[in-house]
Amino acid sequence: MTEADQHLIVKMVERIDRLLSEEREASRLSRSRTHERLDEVIEMVAHLDKQVAVAAETDLRAQAQIKALTARLDAIEPTIEAWQDMLKAGRRISWIVGISGLLSGAALWAGLQWFGDVVVASVRAWLRIP
Question: Who contacts 129 (Cβ-Cβ below 8 Å, separation ≥6)?
């Protein structure tokens, strides 16, 4: 083997070594970026898990409040019904008092008219006015 052949072989080996080094560096960078992306995805999944947990907790709280309000409403429903019955009774009494007041007023008016007629007739008879 001649010196030119050896020099050519050394250059080829150096070139192969450089290509392999570049390939290793590119692989290292690729793996590094892949791991960075995986870390980002893991963080996103963890964040989504937290959001889902918060949403579920909020939903459970809302359901508990609805149940509590429903139970409270069931507990006071008889009171509400009694109050409504009292209001109805009050309206009925108001109508009865109003109608009786109208009838009393009409009777008083009729009585006053009759009394007025009687008084006029009495005064005319007393004064002997025809």
Answer: 123
Predicted TM-score (pTM) of this structure: 0.42
**Locate tokens 């072989």: which residue?**
9
Closest CA to 106 of 121, 90, 119, 114: 114
Residue 128 CA to residue 130 CA, distance in Å, equals 6
Rounded-to-integer distance, Cα 57 and Cα 54, Å:
5
Q: What is the C-alpha separation between 65 and 71, in angstroms, rounded?
A: 10
Question: Mean pLDDT for the chain?
Answer: 91
Label residues 43-78 b or e (16+ Cβ within 10 Å = b).
eeeeeeeeeeeeeeeeeeeeeeeeeeeeeeeeeeee
**Three-state SS for 73?**
helix
- Position 96: which residue type? I
- pLDDT band for 124, please (50, 70, 90 cuts): confident
